[in-house]
Description:
Layout: E1 11-12, H1 14-20, H2 43-57, H3 59-71, H4 75-81, H5 87-115, H6 121-129, E2 135-136, H7 154-157, E3 168-173, H8 180-194, E4 198-203, H9 210-217, E5 221-222, E6 238-241, H10 247-253, E7 263-266, H11 271-282, H12 285-297, E8 300-303, H13 308-311, E9 320-322, H14 328-339, H15 342-349, E10 356-361, H16 372-390, E11 398-403, H17 411-421, E12 429-432, H18 438-444, E13 447-450, H19 461-468, E14 473-476, H20 479-482, E15 492-494, H21 499-508, E16 510-511, E17 514-515, H22 517-531, H23 535-549, H24 576-581, H25 600-626, H26 633-658, H27 667-685, H28 689-694, E18 699-705, E19 720-724, E20 737-738, H29 739-742, H30 749-755, H31 757-765, E21 776-781, H32 782-786, H33 793-805, E22 811-814, H34 818-822, H35 833-840, H36 845-857, E23 882-885, H37 886-906, E24 908-909, E25 912-913, H38 922-926, H39 930-934, H40 936-943, E26 947-951, E27 958-961, H41 964-967, H42 978-993, H43 1013-1044
Parallel strand pairs: 3-4, 3-6, 4-5, 6-7, 7-8, 8-9, 10-11, 10-13, 11-12, 13-14, 14-15, 18-19, 18-21, 19-20, 22-26
Antiparallel strand pairs: 1-2, 16-17, 21-23, 22-23, 24-25, 26-27
Helix pairs in contact: 2-5, 5-16, 5-17, 8-23, 14-19, 15-18, 16-21, 19-22, 36-37, 37-42
Amino acid sequence: MGRNSASPDRVSSGDDNANSGGLGFHSIRDRIRFKRNPNPNTTNIDSNVKDRSKTASCPDRQWRANRSHHHTRSTARKFFLFPFRGRSLFYFFIFFAVFAFALASMVLQSSITSLFRPGSERGRLVREGLKFGSSLKFFPWRTARWFKEGGGLDRLRSEPRIGVRPPRLGLILGNMKKDPFSLMLFTVMRNLQRLGYVIKIFAVKDGEARSMWKKIGGQISILSPEGYGHIDWSIFEGIIVDSLEAKDAISSLMQEPFCLVPLIWIIHDDTLANRLPTYETMGWDPLVSYWKNAFSRADVVVFPDFSLPMLYSVLDSGNFFVIPGSPIDVWAAESYSKTHSKFQLRADYGFRKDDMIVLIVGSSFFYNELSWDYAVAMHDIGPLLIKYARAKDVGCSFKFVFLCGNSTDGYNDALQEIATHLGLPRSSIRHYGMNGDVTGLLLMADIVLYGSSQDEQGFPPLLTRAMSFGIPVIAPDYPVIKKYVVDGVHGIIFPKHKPDVLMRSFSLLISKGKLSKFAHVVASSGRLLAKNMLASECIVGYAKLVENVLTFPSDTLLPGHSSQLTDGAWEWNLFRKEIEQRTGDMENMNQRGTYVRNSSVVYSIEEDLINLVGSRNLSREESETLEQDIPTELDWEILMEIESSEEVERLEMEEIDERMERETGVWDDIYRIARKVEKLKFEANEMDEGELERTGQPLCIYEIYNGAGAWSFLHHGSLYRGLSLSARAQRLRSDDVDAIGRLPLLNDSYFRDILCEIGGMFSIAKGVDNIHKRPWIGFQSWRAAGRKVSLSTKAEQVLEETIQEETKGDVIYFWAPLEMDAGLTGSNDVLTFWSMCDILNGGNCRTAFADAFRRMYSLPSHIEALPPMPEDGGRWSALHSWVMPTPSFLEFIMFSRMFADSLNGLHTNSSKITVCLLGSSKLEKRNCYCRILELLVNVWAYHSARKMVYIDPRFGSLEEQHPIEQRKEFMWAKYFNFTLLKSMDEDLAEAADDNDFPSEMWLWPLTGEVYWQGVYEREREERYRLKMDKKRRTRERLHERMKHGYRQKSLG
């Protein structure tokens, strides 16, 4: 972490933490009564301190020197220089011993701090931001609100709900290797499956874990670069991406209509974090922006430890979150122990078999560059070093090994100098850097001492690895350690900053120069604890995160509560073979001893964009050069004068040429000029390619879409034409209809969201003769292709042949049945039309439809207002995928506009919008009317006596649904009569024409044409007035010519 600068909002002062019991650096000056030298660089003072430190380190020799010195002086002189006698002398020596020890500690800390210097600019910034007494914490300031009391699904679980399908999760794997990350993710996914989630798995690359993942997600889809655009991500309640390797999937989720699908992105490694400083140094801002946009797309970016979000702080948009817990350290320890021997490692490092090796590790935040952690630790372990490193009566040789920094930074020489100051053998203290074999040092250690002054938020990973090796650990009483480790059971916990207690705790592990029986018992218990120590917290953390991030539509079953997850262990049984046989895992360990994946996508994206960065820099330099050539205001005035004089001269020459006699010219020239004029006129009125293909065809199907992400689901050909609900996401090389341009209401995002696809239909119906001049019209949502219910080529042929043969009667053909759209389970005789509508609309479909219908027709409260729908088990249309005659379409739109306005009136109070009652999730409330309006065509077709025919989208077979003969006695034909609807439409148009609005937010006039008999008469009067004005001007012009004659204008 020394390489990263901390953001100001994440660095809290030590005072705050002292009051709140938080984490942090505690000032050394608070624990030492002597302040440091304010000018440590002065040579004389350094020599004095050095001499005093030598004296303090050898108190026995100091006493002997003082004694011999006094014998060489006179009695009076001795009394003058040393006036202490008796009891005063005893107290003096006590004070002097305390002073010597404090001075030695101060010099020791000063030496450590001056030696461990940060080696990079990033480390310097962290050091400046973190002074003594301050603390470093990660606060998920935006995502933390999801875990507040009362959040998640607690409210939905307390409400009545009818769910008919489990929630769907999409999991995108960067690869399918069997490694610690796969173990963690597989364990989490299996437990989510136990809570009721259905998981569909996609993978960027195939691998050895394919059969294992099939146990969770069934058939696995391997994604190709072209395959991302052919997946309908909207069918999932949420998407989980497991690594940086799946970045291309993130890109497809950044486009509409998938940009609102909840996304959880798990980042395990620091490959990109290590490249970010390089991007900033090189000025590659587009690369930083590229990754920042990608990270901001995710609703939550999850890290397995608290150091990674610090490293990625440049990309943080408030969506970072940490769920601690990973089997990486246990995996690394077990894999390493299979291929390495503890005694061989000792021999390789120059240690003897009977040496007692005490490994001292610090905070994971300061492994590389900051030394304060170790400087503070030296104050606590100083007495321990003096007692055991110098002692010869303990039966063995103690070796204290410090694990920090890099092996090439001269830290070892600094520690040897400290050993000399303390009077310790040079071989008793050693230093090894984090860029070496960290796991090997842990394996050959007898005792691991956690000497950090930082109270970390997560359990120290090196302690976990040491416990996995069966090594007893000693650690301060920090909350995160006490949370998992029981003192005297899994390890030794001592009060921080109390060296005497540390010495007593250390002595419990030593017996006759070897580890005591108590130490072996503690080590064994610690090993069992470490194996699954963080598994339960990790599993429950992900379960809570998923239920807080995902949106659960009204038709989904709610997942089980996280309290049901009682099995808090990793799925080791599926990975045991890989742990035992894999010998190359340690190559994937970084310098902090952390298992990492090689994220090649980071470097490939860097190579792709680096050329773009260079070209932009070149263009910027060219633009700076061109700025010098920009004309001034005086230049523009001179240029305009020149152009105006040339224009006057040209007009004069044309007038002269018109009055001069000219020869007729060559016939070929005249013919060429005439053809050129005709060609220009034709190009102005020429139809585009799509319009030419549809010429003469009786049918055109408009495919409704609302984003670039849906382009791959659209069809090409003369039968289809795109209908875009977003002007910015319209296909370039196509003749798609711009719905917003035809209906300005859709420019308002609120109305575009609540109306969805039917808003596009309103735009087609407005001035339909200007865009659609065919007898049949059809619509199909882009979602039909995404859910595999769009028309096949065979079904298209059958449909075209049928509408050409069947010219009698009014019929509607549809091919996307309701049960396929919703994924409903159970038989159709159990789920009726209105019960399915209730399920899809938060249980309020019948109530809302009846209220809107009653308001639309001004029915009294005692009259039934819900049109009956049969329970014959037939199919119903969904996804706005149907074809009908164009006059029938206009009649349906007339009914739909009035119904949508009435429905909107129920959700508006004067000028305010009330809460949507037709959905439970945020996305459903945003698209409030969409699902009920999607089913409206079924009610209209059934009660207006339209023949309803289902066409199989795959084979093209036709099957009539709900025959008219069987529904005559159930139809409410009087409410769906064309004459009645037309009169109601004219009444609304007259009120709109007179500005007699029933409310400020009257929707009906905004959804289409406003036309009634008064408008027709006014238009006829306007045409008559214009005609008479034209006749009057013609008569006046003829009269003026007869009176004065024709005069030719003079030249000049």
